[in-house]
Amino acid sequence: MPSSADQPGVPPSPGFAELYTPKLVTVLKEGYGLNELRADILAGLTVAIVALPLSMAIAIASGTSPDRGLYTAIIGGFLVSLLGGSRFQIGGPAGAFIVLVAGTVAQHGIDGLILATFISGLLLAAAGFLRLGTYIKFIPYPVTVGFTAGIAVIIAVSQIKDLLGLPAGQGDTGSLIEKLSAAVTALPEVSPAALLIAALTIALILALKAFRPGWPGMLIAIAAASLLAFFAGLPVETIGTKFGGIARTLPLPALPDLSAPLFWAVLPNAFAFTLLGAIESLLSAVVADGMTGRRHRSNCELVAQGAANIGSALFGGMCVTGTIARTATNVRAGARGPVAGMCHALFLLAFMLIAAPLASYIPLAALAGVLVLVAWNMIEKHAIAILVRTSPGDTLVLSATFLFTVFRDLTEGIIIGFSIGTLIFLNRMAKSIRIEHHMPFVPEDKADWENGTRAPYDAKLASDPGLVVYRISGAFFFGSASTVAAVLDRIAERPQTLVLDFSDVPFLDSTAANTVESALRKARASKARIFITGTSEPIRKALNAHGIKEPEISFAETVEAALKASRGA
């Protein structure tokens, strides 16, 4: 079988090196000087300032200690940039994972989370080497919008306890409905101090975004809230009071608990991490491509995400993925390449080494305020409005994904949304098939100068009742096979010459090929001469595989060529 390189007009398949060479190598080969390094250092510092409070907030919301968020951003972020297939991707803990990570911790503890992250890293790397990154693009857009909005709602609800300073156990466990119900019941116990801190944090972030968009709003708001809580002596829970502060150094790497019972217990969680991690990472890379005009290597990116998750697990971190907001910040800050992401990780390490004791004073209400804004920004309001206005089918996919994510499970939401989206797509494709029945054959009526090479009107052919021409247009697959079969059944008219034109058929599957074979069996029984025209190489191979081959059937390039052959018979 000839390779794509041997076929004219088909580009050769990319080799291993082309697919998996990290973008860092590409950037260095292009020429990397002091100007580029200076730009990447500044961009890395900018992203690190954004990532510092966010990483701790996501870790706390996920049911772990804040230092695990920093481990994830430092180790995972460095490896994503070092090995990744995107020039600008920033890796670290992501808000989208809060639901999955919190569920895993609740079920299997920290050891289970670390093992699930480790297994997910292996699965992501395997997906990259198996070149599955290409298929992530088949996740329908309404599905991604739906599950992102669902995750955002769950994140916001999960922050009610810290946002209002409610006692432990009030609004922080159970399903979404249970959390809301518990929070409403506990409203008389709201802490005015916590509510003040949360409101101040949110208001300051929004004000800085509106009037000083270049300033690190999250970090400034967290610092201001911490100072207010400390100097005013406000009775609010802080990182220090809940976790005893954060570590000042990275832990030594260690393998996770690889016991068989725990492995099998967390395997479903690892698959969920892998699915969401692949989707989030490649979506983030696509966003960076759109902002810069560059093009990422999807399979190389998956391998890097796999290595980053393995590395994060070895250092006690949690799931790593590409983060859209931090990646966009990196691009806007003037990054030139992956060195910016590596610098971001190094700056975070420096912050942890130097300023770890100060983190003890950060109020949990302030971090809750940050996450509420993160959740709000995660909801793609403009996209939802467009989908709802323009497409009932996409609205159904969006709604189903959102509702299953919120009230059932993220993985179920993605699977249900994808399944409904697939069915809607198949229905649309099935309706797009057209089959034209010409008997007698008359050329399409066009202006004289538009006829091109089409055969001129032939009075003999036009009055020949023994000639039948069928033109099929559109994707011919199992969903549309019954439509075509209903028309082809009319072959019982017993023509002397039958022509099937496939020139407008881009795709044909085995069901469609079997439908054609059944129809042609009738025609052969009536001694008709059969021509098939306009087939591409893949379609002809599919027909041949189902017994539709010469000499029983004649193949021709065009309908006109088939008609000439029939007249010469």
TrEMBL record:
Coiled-coil region list: none
Subcellular location: Membrane
Keywords assigned by UniProt, alphabetized: Membrane, Transmembrane, Transmembrane helix
GO biological process: transmembrane transport
Domain STAS: 457-566
One Pfam short name: Sulfate_transp
Bilayer topology: Multi-pass membrane protein
GO-annotated cellular components: membrane
Chief location of this protein within or outside the cell: membrane
Membrane-spanning intervals of the chain: 41-62, 69-90, 96-126, 138-157, 190-208, 215-234, 262-288, 361-379, 386-407, 413-430
PANTHER family: SULFATE TRANSPORTER
Stated name of the protein: Sulfate transporter/antisigma-factor antagonist
Taxonomic lineage: Bacteria, Pseudomonadati, Pseudomonadota, Alphaproteobacteria, Hyphomicrobiales
